[in-house]
Prior knowledge:
The protein is of the alpha+beta class.
Amino acid sequence: PPTCITASEVVELLTNSIHQAYSIEGVSRIMESEPNERATASIILYSHHLHCLISVGDCQAALINEAGEIFQRIQPTKYNDEVMAQARSMFLQIELTRGGKTIEELRTQMPGRAFIEPLRRGQKLFQNNPKAPDLYQYWVIDGFPVDPSKGITIHKIPEQTKRIILASDGYPILHTTLKETEKELKELIKEE
């Protein structure tokens, strides 16, 4: 492998590897027309050579200084996720206002999740799709080309950075330790 590789080359290498797997399995055409079936990954990585973070999708990072404090958070958001969160919230508020269902019933039965499911599945039509409306486009590693100008984000690492935490979007809030981050996640899940 090359010792000096650009962010675009990294993404292209990963993308091509997935697309090659589709070809080997004979499913390339299906994956092109059915984005819900694609293997999909968001990624964030640190390039020592470029002294930066390279990301595609909604992974996140926290930069920690000499004092052991987080001084910068990198938390990309996807417009589609915001729309779905608002739609789900409104649906649940309607259900509560109508009466007949308790908050506990809404938590266990999850009708809000079912309500947004068509949006969640439908948004895949915007995934790695340069023809989709810009507002709804989003980019991931899925075996299909990522537009470098829209889908690859480069974050330069400031000099005061002593440690970097990388994580998926599964952790809503990053703390300086995994234990604290996991505790926060458990509390949020319990509240939700």
